[in-house]
Design goal:
about 190 residues; alpha/beta; Rossmann fold; six-stranded parallel beta sheet; 6 strands; about 20% strand; globular
């Protein structure tokens, strides 16, 4: 049975840390593939700087076009809004019954996992692969489920920081793949 990690995010914009984490997880876990699922609006976050789904998905495609085993997914964009991870996992499991899905989340999300809709369903039916985030201690004992702490490197970069750099016109290129940076410049995004 193929093992796929579902790595959801707003990817606003997708950056080298996102891609490096996906590649690390692919190399250091039993996953065969990682699907980077573009999320519409996160129900737990409000973000006035969120670009359109189409622009963010175009950047995700550019970022992953030659990354082996890591694929962009727009599955959540085609589902009813608001988008909830439990619904996405149900949908994917129904559409791909021969795939074993795991959910990839940061330690910051594990801290608030009990605020997610149908979080117990996720814990009962899927493995969670939890990567470290600065300032967050992942308390796996808080939940009863198949939760694996992945000893991934800490990528000290965030989309929020990158948007700030882009707005100020300096320093963002070192955090973005060249194709994504070119797309941002061509479309005058995050100004």
């Amino acid at each position: 049975m193929k093992k796929v990690g579902v790595y959801s995010g707003s990817f606003n914009p997708v950056h080298v840390g996102h891609v490096a984490l996906a590649e690390y997880l692919l190399a250091h876990t039993d996953l065969d593939e990682i699907w980077m699922v573009l999320s519409p609006q996160n129900p737990l976050k409000q973000n006035a700087e969120l670009l359109s789904d189409e622009l963010r998905y175009a950047m995700l495609q550019l970022a992953l076009h030659d990354v082996q085993g890591v694929f962009p997914s727009d599955v959540e964009l085609k589902m009813p809004k608001p988008s909830y991870t439990a619904d996405t996992l149900r949908h994917l499991s129904g559409a791909y019954p021969d795939v074993e899905f795991s959910l990839i989340i940061g330690a910051d999300n594990l801290d608030i996992f009990d605020r997610w809709r149908d979080y117990q369903y996720i814990l009962d039916n899927y493995r969670l692969l939890v990567y470290p985030r600065r300032g967050c201690l992942a308390d796996v004992k808080k939940y009863n489920g198949n939760i694996v702490l992945v000893d991934a490197p800490l990528f000290d970069v965030s989309s929020t920081m990158i948007r700030r750099c882009l707005k100020n016109g300096k320093g963002a290129e070192r955090f973005l793949l060249p194709e994504v940076m070119a797309f941002i410049n061509e479309n005058k995004l995050y100004r």
